[in-house]
């Protein structure tokens, strides 16, 4: 009997200390929900952590944002993630994905439609507005127009074949005998006939003076006009024979072939260039936006986009330039981030709302999952607390036995 007095207290202290700590640790998480009897909530239900999970979530978020994810740490993390090599690799990957997308006919069609809408908006909307704004400047297109005049129009000369074709077109389409006859009739008005007769009388000399003052040109010109009006077919035949007799096609061909702006005086060339520039500028100011918009509406932009994408898909220069393009873009981003990364991170942190994200994530975690996660992290530490409780209980029992021995 005396033996039980010395054995029971240490064993009882061991059992009580061990299981008391084990129960206390389990009561941190369990029960997971509240239990009620006749509407009265049983104390210690739910467990401490499930009962205070919202406050715990806010405290965890506050601790993480205050100690771990500070703006300085996020800034340093962003600099590590956005190193030039990583950005270049990411940009190269994106460009590779874009090129691979062009190889797929269905995706190429979708890309062509998107590109067509972009080109149409650029040409039909943005470009007319840009021309309208730029046209207000006095020097609008002055350099390109002058360059066009100096390098193209000033050097332009027709070769023999071009001059021959142009002369044939002029004589057959622009100035056939019928048109010449009508122009001659329109020119020979009474006023013009009087002016020609007076000019001939004043300027004629020698034998021509005698003819001019005795006969004059008035009657002859009146008869010519009357003949052209009353006998149009005969007048046209005479004009046609006259053109053949003077070999008009050959003469006109020679004139056109020798025609060049370089043969004109310098002052005339400058005046012509100025007039051309002013005419183009005035036309673009008044009609340019409408002309560009109308031209854009007449273009099949989807077809143009398909041609552009097809050319890009088979472009060896583009494929060979991917590395260089990605490197250049990465350097541009690096320079931008070096200057504005800190301010950018200060703007991003409130937008990300990381503390609320962390709190919502903790609140969304079930008590069982939360217990399992904590147990995985501190399982050994929690078991050590349980064992320590048993050890302390055993020691208390031993102390009690010592008191009994005294």
Give a short overview.
The protein has 406 residues and is an all-alpha fold. The protein is 83% helix and 1% strand.
Verbal overview:
Helix content is 83%, strand content 1%. With 406 residues, it is mainly α. Among the domains are: 2-65 and 339-405, no CATH class; 176-249, no CATH class. It has a two-stranded antiparallel ribbon. Strand 1 and strand 2 form a beta hairpin. The model has no long low-confidence stretch (mean pLDDT 75). It is rod-shaped. Belongs to the UPF0754 family. This is UPF0754 membrane protein CYA_0973. It is found in: Cell inner membrane. Keywords: Cell inner membrane, Cell membrane, Membrane, Transmembrane, Transmembrane helix. It is a multi-pass membrane protein.
Task: Describe the secondary-structure layout.
Elements: H1 2-27, E1 36-37, E2 40-41, H2 48-51, H3 53-68, H4 71-81, H5 84-103, H6 105-134, H7 142-153, H8 160-174, H9 177-187, H10 190-203, H11 207-214, H12 218-230, H13 232-245, H14 248-258, H15 266-297, H16 301-313, H17 316-320, H18 322-352, H19 354-364, H20 367-405
Antiparallel strand pairs: 1-2
Helix pairs in contact: 1-20, 3-19, 4-18, 5-18, 6-15, 6-16, 7-15, 8-14, 9-13, 12-13
Please give a handful of descriptors for the protein shown.
406 residues, mainly alpha, single chain
Distance between the termini: 17 Å
The percentage of residues in β strands lies in under 5%
Helix/sheet category: mainly alpha
Quaternary state reads: single chain
Q: Flag low-confidence runs.
A: none
Largest sheet: 2 strands, antiparallel
Q: Mean of residue pLDDT?
A: 75
Number of strands: 2
Order of helices and strands: HEEHHHHHHHHHHHHHHHHHHH
What is the global morphology? rod-shaped
Helix content: over 70%
Number of helices: 20
Q: What is the CA-atom radius of gyration, in angstroms?
A: 50 Å
Strand order in space, largest sheet: 1-2
């Amino acid at each position: 009997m005396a033996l039980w007095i010395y054995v029971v207290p240490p064993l009882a202290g061991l059992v009580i200390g061990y299981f008391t700590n084990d129960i206390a640790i389990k009561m941190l998480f369990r029960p997971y929900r509240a239990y009620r009897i006749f509407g009265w909530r049983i104390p210690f239900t739910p467990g401490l952590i499930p009962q205070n999970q919202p406050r715990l979530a806010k405290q965890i978020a506050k601790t993480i944002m205050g100690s771990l994810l500070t703006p300085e740490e996020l800034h340093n993390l962003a600099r590590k993630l956005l190193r030039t090599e990583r950005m270049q690799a990411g940009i190269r990957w994106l460009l590779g994905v874009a090129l691979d997308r062009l190889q797929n006919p269905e995706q190429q069609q979708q890309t062509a439609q998107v590109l067509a809408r972009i080109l149409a908006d650029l040409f039909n909307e943005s470009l007319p507005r840009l021309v309208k704004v730029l046209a207000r400047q006095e020097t609008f297109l002055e350099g390109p127009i002058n360059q066009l005049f100096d390098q193209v129009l000033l050097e332009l000369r027709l070769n023999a074949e071009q001059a021959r074709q142009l002369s044939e077109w002029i004589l057959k389409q622009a100035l056939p005998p019928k048109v010449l006859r009508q122009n001659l009739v329109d020119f020979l008005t009474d006023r013009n006939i009087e002016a020609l007769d007076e000019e001939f009388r004043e300027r004629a000399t020698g034998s021509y003076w005698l003819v001019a003052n005795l006969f004059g040109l008035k009657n002859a010109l009146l008869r010519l006009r009357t003949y052209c009006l009353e006998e149009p077919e005969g007048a046209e035949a005479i004009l046609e024979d006259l053109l053949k007799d003077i070999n008009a096609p050959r003469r006109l061909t020679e004139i056109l072939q020798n025609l060049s702006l370089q043969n004109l005086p310098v002052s005339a060339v400058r005046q012509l260039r100025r007039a051309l520039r002013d005419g183009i500028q005035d036309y673009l100011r008044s009609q340019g936006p409408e002309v560009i918009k109308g031209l854009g509406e007449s273009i099949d932009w989807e077809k143009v986009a398909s041609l552009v994408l097809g050319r890009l898909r088979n472009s060896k220069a583009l494929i060979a330039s991917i590395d260089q393009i990605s490197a250049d873009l990465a350097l541009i981003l690096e320079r931008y981030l070096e200057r504005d990364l800190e301010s950018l991170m200060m703007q991003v942190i409130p937008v990300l709302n990381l503390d609320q994200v962390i709190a919502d994530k903790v609140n969304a975690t079930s008590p069982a999952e939360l217990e399992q996660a904590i147990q995985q992290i501190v399982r050994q530490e929690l078991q050590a607390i349980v064992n320590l409780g048993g050890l302390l209980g055993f020691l208390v029992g031993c102390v009690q036995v010592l008191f009994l021995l005294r």
